Every structure is written in C-alpha cells, then in structure tokens.
Amino acid sequence: MLDAGLVCHLGVVVDGAPRVLPTGYGRIGDTLYLHGSTGARSLREAAEDAEVCVAVTHVDGVVYSRSVFHFSVNYRSAVIHGRARLVTDPDERLAGLRAITEHLAPGSWEHSREPDKKELAKTAVVALSLDEAAVKIRSGGANDDAEDIEANSAWAGVLPLRAQWGEPEPNHDLPGDFAVPDHVANRKMP
Fold first, then answer.
1. Alpha carbon of residue 83 to chain centroid
2. CA quadruple 145, 146, 151, 153: dihedral positive or negative?
3. What is the model's pTM?
4. Which of 14, 109, 112, 136 is the 20 to 30 Å CA partner of 187?
C-alpha cells in the first residue's frame, strides 16, 4: 500500500490544534521516512518524539448508487500511528533522503547531485516505525436497498479512476539537445 503511493499526509498537534500536511515519503524495511524544512513548525513538533499519524490513500473509483445514501468510493488506505523520531545519524539521514527520492522518482538518486552540507542543514528527516499500521480497502459496486433495485430508477455502478504518467516536460532552462533519461521516460505506475 505504501509503496504504491506518492504522497502521505502527516498529522501532528501544534499548540493544541491538529495540523495535516501533505509530504513525500520513503520506506526502508519497517521504517517510514519523511522530510521537510527544519523551519517547518509541524515537522519540528513531529521530530520531538511526538505522537503523529500518517495516512496514504489511493482512490480507485467512485461508486454510483440508485440512492445517494449508498454512494461511496473504492479505495485502499494505510494509516500509521506512532512516535516520530528526528534522524540525526548522518548515514541514516542520507539513506532516508535516498529512500524518499527513489520512492518519488526512481533512478534519480544516482542521476542527480546529492544534497550538500547547506541543503542538509535546511532539511529535517524524521522516522516512524510501521509497528502500528492499519490497512483498509473498499472495492466493488453499490450496495443498494432491495426496493431501489426493484424500482430500477437510476444507474448504479463504478466509475474507475486510473492514474497514469504523461509525457515528460523539459524544464524551460534545459538545453534542447538534452535527452530525457530512461528512468524518467520509462516510468510506470506501481
């Protein structure tokens, strides 16, 4: 479930109020890594051994029903609860950043320049154990009531949602003769 997603939502309490922020993530074994600016208050709170919640959801389709009460969404989701910890070990920080980069853009860690000392100083990496995780899935069609099925007055079914990559768009300042690398051109959806 986590490997198939791209963005998670990090939930943390800041000054007594909940905050939920989208962010990229990566996984190494049973540890989830998140990163962000060292100046981000929510990430600083999460890094101070705080209870956090991370959620990833994949929407697979909208379920149409004969009654609006039974409309639904087909989805797959993972929710992780636990105490985040700030990653301070330099080797683990780089491994976490590599996992995040390779999760979002496979093949890019070897293709691009690694972060320098200044960039690392601006980046916080937090780790979260996957020990407390739950997965939930909803699939299938509408669960209409018998009287609505008998009345047969509205269409019922699923409108699937499928994500796909588009054509790579070169940056405006990239020379025209720079070929799109294979790890970008051949990217497939998980």
1. 19
2. positive
3. 0.89
4. 136
